[in-house]
Amino acid sequence: MRVAILISGGGSNMTALADSMTGDHPARPVLVLSNRPDAGGLARADARGIPTAAVDHRPYKGDRAAFEAALHDTLCAAQPDLICLAGFMRVLTEGFVARWQGRMINIHPSLLPKYRGLDTHARALEAGDTEAGCTVHEVTPALDDGPILGQARVPVRAGDTPDSLAARVLEAEHRLYPAVLRRLAEGDRKRLDLPQR
Ligand code: GRF
């Protein structure tokens, strides 16, 4: 299975995914693509010998269709079977999602359906939640709403700040995303639930 990974930032999830695809793993990373040419993750991918590309959204100045057409062309050139969004911070339109539906997944830092969108950790703390976590789901046109493929849970601890909780959840993301990817690559779409750690 050929896997393209879309990032916008440091790419720690991308690194976890890429580093998992070795040996007898049935998938390989074929492209790391960023909408930010300065994303730290591009250098990390390059250092691993993975082809990289950037499609900067800024020159498109709000012309989402043109930006997504460029994104689509760059992706098609790499012929991926699966696209993993990993901290990709652009909302994708229905048209783009429809072209890749069933072949595009995302990781979100909350236990969906709770806290779609941004600031998930601050919202979990504000609500007094005792547990937080992350979700890997299929990407559908509605934001953070597709079928859930896996979740991992972490405790919320006394004195947690959004940053300390984010760090704990991020560690869980790095366990969950490669585990779900491996299952998908092996043809298993059954939901995976990792116990709290
Ligand atoms: C992760 O928390 C991911 O869930 C969210 O953005 C963050 C990206 O981190 N969507 P990284 O770029 O993978 O380090």
Automatic annotation (TrEMBL):
GO molecular function: phosphoribosylglycinamide formyltransferase activity
Top-tier EC class: transferase
Positions of the catalytic residues: 108 (proton donor)
Domain Formyl transferase N-terminal: 1-181
Keyword set, alphabetical order: Purine biosynthesis, Transferase
Catalytic activity annotation: N(1)-(5-phospho-beta-D-ribosyl)glycinamide + (6R)-10-formyltetrahydrofolate = N(2)-formyl-N(1)-(5-phospho-beta-D-ribosyl)glycinamide + (6S)-5,6,7,8-tetrahydrofolate + H(+)
Annotated GO biological process: 'de novo' IMP biosynthetic process
GO cellular component, one term: cytosol
EC number: 2.1.2.2
Function per UniProt: Catalyzes the transfer of a formyl group from 10-formyltetrahydrofolate to 5-phospho-ribosyl-glycinamide (GAR), producing 5-phospho-ribosyl-N-formylglycinamide (FGAR) and tetrahydrofolate.
The family this protein is said to belong to: Belongs to the GART family.
Name under which the protein is recorded: Phosphoribosylglycinamide formyltransferase
